[in-house]
Amino acid sequence: MRIRRRLTRAAATVSVISLLTVALTAAGSGAEPVSAPDGDQLGFVDAATLPADELKGLDRPQPLAAYTGDPAARTAAEPTLAADEDLRTQCEAQAEKAKTAQGWIKSRFESCQKRPYDLVLRNKQGTQSIGRLWFDMWTLGFAYDGSRRVDYTASIENIRVQTVGTEDATKWRVGQHFRSTINASSSDPDPKLTPPQTTSRDELLGAWDSTPLWTLTYTSPDKGALYSSGNQQRVYATVVMDVTADSPNATSYTEVDAYRSGVRFDYAGPVAGKYKGTVFTEARVELSMSQSDPDVDESALHIDDAQKRPERTFPSWPNKTVPGASEPLHRLIDADEQQKNRSKSIATCNNVWGDYSGTSLQCDEYPFASTKEGSNKGDDRYSVRLIEGADNEEGGRRLNTMYTLNRMLDGDPFYVKITR
C-alpha cells in the first residue's frame, strides 16, 4: 500500500467506540443557539431540499480565503498526501458511486468517498436565510493484506461560503465524527477492535481550510496462529462517520451515517495467501477470463456457454440456469467437499463422452469444485465439458491466484466475467 505518511496515535485498548448521540452539538464554540430576529431558531438544511426560488441571492460561493480577505490562507484545499493522489483521481471518475454513503470500493483493499455538501442557514419557518456553505468531504480507506489494520484519511476541502447581513462564516464549524461496531454473530469468538484515540474532529472552517486532512487507524489484536485449530480470528466490523455543521446562530445540523465502511480482520493462515490481513467486505470480487486468451480460451468459452447458453451444456434439463454472472459463487475450503464435486463432475463427463483416458483432455467443471455451488450441491446447476488439460490447469491456477490476492475465505462471494 502506498500510504507513507500517517498520524501517529497511541493504541486505545477498547473494543468498540461508543455510539455518538444522534443530536451531536458543536464541540468547541461553547455558544448556545440563539434565536433569529423573528424568534425562530436558525439551522443548516440541505440546499437540495429547498425550491430554487428560495435560493435566490445565495448563489455566489466564495472560497473561504476570499471571504476572509486573508491572502495567506488557502484558496482551495489540495491533497497533501501524494501517495493518495491516484486513488483520488480514480474516485473522481466514479463520481456517482463515490458520493454514496458506501462510496466507491475499488478493491478489497482500497475504497473512497467524495461527498459534495451544499447547506443553507435559515430559520425553521423558511422566512429567512442568512448564509450558505459548500464543501467537499473526502474519505479514503486502505485495508492491508498482511496486517490486521485499516486506515481512513478524511478531509473537508474546497470550502466556499456566502453570508447575508451580519452573519459571520468564520464562526461556522464542521465536524466529522467516527464510530464503530462489531458484528459478533458473524465474527469468531472474542472479537476485538482497537480504534484510534481521536475519533472526532469538530473545527472552525478556517482550521479545515488550513489543515484539511486527518487520519484514523483501526486495528484488531491477534493471538497468534490459531487457524489450524479452526479459529481464524475473524472480526467483522463497521466504521461509520456522522457529519455536523454549526453556527453560533444555529441549531446543529447532523447527518448520521454519512459514510459507512464494512471491514473484516482475519488470521486465516495460508488459505488466504498472506497469513493475516484486512479487507473491505462490500468489494465486488471478480474472476475475469477472455476467449481471446490462448491459455484459457477453452475454459472461457465453456463458462460463457454455461452462463449465457446453458442449453449447450451438460447435464441438460429444461430452463437450466448456471450461477456466477449476476448470482455470485462462494469459495469452498473443505478439501473433502471439493473432491466430492470433482468426482461427480468426472462421472458426468464419463457418462456423456465415455472413456477419455489416454488423451490430453480433462473434465472441466463450472461452477468450480472449490465453490459451494459445485456439482455435488444437488441442484444440477452446473456444467462439464472436455477441454485441453493445459487450458483447464491454467484456469485453475488463475482461480487460486484470485482467491489469495483477494483474501477469499470460506463462503466469500465472487463473480466470473467472460470477455471476448
What does this protein structure show overall?
The protein has helices at 64-68, 85-93, 95-98, 205-210, 297-308, 335-353, 389-405, and strands spanning 42-46, 62-63, 104-105, 110-123, 129-143, 149-163, 173-182, 200-204, 213-219, 235-246, 250-251, 253-266, 277-280, 286-290, 329-330, 361-366, 383-388, 413-419. The chain is elongated and about 90 Å long. 17% of the residues lie in helices and 32% in strands. Mean pLDDT is 89; it is low at 1-39. The strands form 4 sheets. Strands 1, 2, 3, 4, 5, 6, 9 and 11 form an 8-stranded mixed β-sheet that branches. Strands 8-7-10-12-13 form a 5-stranded antiparallel β-sheet. Strand 4 (110-123) and strand 5 (129-143) form a beta hairpin. The longest helix has 19 residues, at 335-353. It starts with 41 loop residues before the first strand and ends with a strand.
Helix content: 10-25%
Structural category: alpha+beta
Calculate Rg over CA atoms.
Answer: 27 Å
Number of domains: 2
Low-pLDDT segments: 1-39
Q: Distance between termini?
A: 32 Å
Shape: elongated
- What is the chain-wise order of helices and strands? EEHHHEEEEEEHEEEEEEHEHEEHE
How confident overall, as mean pLDDT?
89
Tell me the β content: 25-35%
The profile of the biggest β sheet is: 8 strands, mixed
What is the number of helical segments per DSSP (H or I, 4+ residues)?
7
Number of strands: 18
